[in-house]
Amino acid sequence: MSADQTILAARESSALTEGTIDLQALLRESDVQSVLDQLDRELIGLAPVKRRLREIAAFLLVSRARKQFGLEVSPPSLHMCFSGNPGTGKTTVATRMADILHRLGYVRKGHLVSVTRDDLVGQYIGHTAPKTKEILKRAMGGVLFIDEAYYLYRPENERDYGQEAIEILLQAMENHRDDFVVILAGYKDRMETFFRANAGMASRIAHHIEFPDYSEDELMQIAQLMLAQMNYRLDASGEQAMREYIERRVRRPNFANARSIRNALDRARLRQANRLFALPQAVDQVALSTLSAADLHASRVFQELDAVSHGETT
Amino acid sequence: MRLTQGAFSFLPDLTDEEIRLQVDYGLERGWAWAIEYTDDPHPRNTYWEMWGTPMFDLRDGAGVLHALNECRKACGRGYIRLCAFDSTRGVESIRMAFIVNRPDEEPGFGLDRQEGEGRNMRYRLHGYAADRSPEERYRADP
Amino acid sequence: MNDFATTTTADRPRGRYDAGVLKYREMGYWQPDYTPKDTDLICVFRITPQEGVDAIEAAAAVAGESSTATWTVVWTDRLTACDSYRAKAYQVDEVPNTGAGTATPQQYFAYVAYDLILFEAGSIANLTASIIGNVFSFKPLRACRLEDMRIPVAYVKTFPGPPTGIVVERERLNNYGRALLGATMKPKLGLSGRNYGRVVYEALKGGLDFTKDDENINSQAFMHWRDRFLYCTEAVNRAVASSGEVKGHYLNITAGTMEDMYERAEFAKQLGAPIVMIDLVIGYTAIQSISRWCRNNDMILHMHRAGHGTYTRQKNHGVSFRVIAKWLRLAGVDHLHAGTAVGKLEGDPMTVQGYYNVCRDAVTQQDLARGLFFEQDWADLAKVMPVASGGIHAGQMHQLLSLFGDDVILQFGGGTIGHPAGIQAGATANRVALEAMTKARNEGRDIDHEGPEILAAAARWCTPLKQALETWKDVSFNYTSTDTPDFVATATASA
User: Same domain for A43 and A165?
Assistant: First the structure.
C-alpha cells in the first residue's frame, strides 16, 4: 500500500461509523473544497463548468463511499473531454481537476502532462509507438491533457501515424485505469466529429464538460483580475476604453477569450511604458501602475474600425 | 544457485507493487530508471542489454512497471534489473540497482584455477550460461 | 577582555625588532581586525591557558609557535616579508560550559589564519609539522586541541585525494543502493593462514561484501603474510563464484618499511585483489605514498585509524578526529573508520555524523551541533567511504541506517563470527537485516520507530536473523562520550 493510499485508508476510517458514512466528513477530510474554492477565486464566470466539477467531485466521493461498503463493482471511468473555444480556461481547470483527482485518491501524484499531436505522433515508421509510450509513462500517476485532440485523426491521409497513437492511447486508457486519467480538449464541433469517427474513444470518455465563451462583463472582470495580479490598474478613461475594446474585439476573427484579453493588456503595458518615457517630468508610483485610454486606443481594433467608418462617410 | 547482485537479492522476490514503491523512491529523488537484461550475469559483465533508454521526467512508478512488463514478455527467461541514474554533480552514476526477474533455473558460475610459480594462483570465473549452445542462448522467447 | 587592537606593531618597526623578549600579541600574532582571505588556512584551537595567562596572549602564542615565532625577537625576520608568514590569531571566544561554576577550567576557542605560502603543496607531513608541530607542548598552555580546520580550495587542489572514491568503488563492485557489509576476522591473532581463509570464505559466502584483516595482522609467527594473502584470495574467489557478486578482503599491507609494504601491495595486485589496507600508525608520508601506488594500480585503499584514540578522544587536548578525517581525505584513502555511535567504541552520534559529513560531502556545511566550525569546499575531491566498525550487530540496523545512510560500510566482526549457527548464518542475518531495512526505508516506513518490528518481520522467514536478534537482543554500549559537541542545535534540545 502506498503512502497516499495509507492516508486515504486512515481518512476513510474516521468518516465511517457503525454502518453509516458521513459524506460531509469525507469531503472535509479530502480537502477538495479548497481546490473548488481556489477555482472560484481564480476563474471568472464559467458557472456551468464549476457546477459540473462539483457534480463530478460528488460522484467520486460517493463512489469511494460505496467502495467501502463493497457496493462498487468496478472503479468509475474518469477520462474526460473539455470542449470549448480557445482561452476559456480548459488548461487551468484540467490542472485543478488533476489536483481534485489526487486528493480523492484516484491518481497517485496529481501532476498534469499537457501535450499536442506533435508530442505523440512520429514522423516515420516505428517512431510513433515509442513517442506515445514515453508520454504515457510520464503521465502515469497524473493526468494526460491532450489539447486539440482531433488532430490525432487525419482521415484524409491514409498513411497518417495518428491512428497508431490513438490505438496505443485507447489500450492504455483501458489497461491502466488506475494509473492515469486522460482529458481530451478542443473546439466543440471538431471534438464531436472526432468522436463520431472514433467510436472506441467516444465510449471511453465518461465526462463531457463544455466551456462557454465569456460574456463581455466577464471579460472585463478578467482584465481587472489580470491587471491586479500584475499590480496595474485602469483609470476611468482606461476602463471605458477597455469596455469598448472588448465590445469590438469579440466580433473580430481569431477571438480567443481570456487569451485575447491577456495579449491586449500586454500590448497596452508596452504602450504605457513608451508614453511614460516620453514625459518630461519624473513619474510616481501611481503613473507607473496606471493604464489609460491612450494605451488602449492605439490598438488596431480601434484603428481599423475607424478606418472603415471613415471610408463609409466619404 | 541464487545470484545475489543488487540491493534486495537476499529478500523474497519483490512483487510488482513492492517494485513500484522502490521506483517511486528513486523518482522522488529525481533519478531516471533504466531497465537492463541479460542471460549472462557474470559479475564483470558490466553492460547488460538496455531495454530502451533511461526513462527521464517520470513522476510515478507505474510507467516503469509498464515498461518492465513489456521487457518481461520479451526476455522473461533471463535476468532483468532496474537501475536508477543520478545526474547530480559528483555522483553522475547509478544510485540504486536491483534484480526484478530471474530465470527459473539459475546456471551459476564455475571457478578454474591455474597454478603458477611461488604458489601463485590465477583464477578464472566463467558463467555456465555462456557454455550453452548459441541455439539455446539466443532462441526467442515463446 | 582587554583591548589589544592597538598593539599590532607593523607600524612601529624599530621597537618591534629591538633585541629581547616581546609578548606574542605585540609581535603581530594577534590581529583582531583581520579578515581571513579565501586562500588562508584557518584553524580553531581549544586552548586552556595556565593560571594567570591571558587568553589573547595564549591565542597569539599558538599562532606564533605554529608559524614563524620563536621565544625571542630575531633580527633575521627583517630579511623576510615576515608579515605574511606570521599566523594571525583573529578571534577568541569562551567555550560554553567551562570556567567558573563548572568542573572544567576556562577554555577558549582561538581562531588562527595561516597564509598559503606556509605550506608545501600536497604534503600532509608539512601541513601537520606546522600546525601541530610544537605548539601542543607549549608551557603557557595547560592543554590545547585542534578542533577544526578550513582548508582553502587552492590548497585542496594540490592533493590528488582518494585513489578510488565512493562512486568509482561502487561501479567497480557493481553494488548500488545499499550500505556495504564487512567483518573483521576474529580471533585477531593466532589463526593459521588456512584457518583464517576459512573464516573469510564463510563470511563472504554468507552474504558480506568484504572481510578485513585487523590492524595488527601483519606477518607474525603464526601466519606469514604471503600465506594469508593466498588463502584469502582462494576464499574470496570461491565466494564470488557462489554468489555472482564482486567481493573482497582488505589485505593489510602494513609493515616495518615502505619496501616491505610495496612488496605486499604488488603481491596483492598479482593475485587480483581489489583492495588493500593500511594502518594510520604508518604515518602521513607512508599513507600518501601508498595512496599514490593505489591510484596507479586501480586498488581501493582501506584505512584503519589505529592509534587515533591516543590524541583524538580527550576533549581538552589533542586533535579532533574531524581534522584527522580531513587530512586523510586529502592524503587519499578510500575507506576510513569513522565510528559507529551505537557500538563499543567512543563516539557521540552528532559528533560522529560530523566525521561522516567530512568524508562524504561535496561541500561540508558549518554545523556547530555536529562539531563542524567551518564550511569546507572539497573542490570535487573524491569522497571517502566511512566505515562503522566495533561492537555493532544486526539488531541495530535501523539505527545505523538512520544515522549513516547508504554510503557506509557496516562491519560486524563479532556480530558475524559469533553467530550461534555459524559464520555463514551470521553473515546472512546481517545481509537480510540490511536489505529488509533499506527496502522498508525506501517504501516510506519510519525506521527509527518501526525498526524492531521490521526486523522481527524479516526474522519470521529468516532463521539466522531470528537467532541473531535473540542472541544480541540486550547488547548496547550506553556510556557517556568524552568527545561531545559544545553547541546544541536548539535551546530545547535538552528537554
Answer: yes
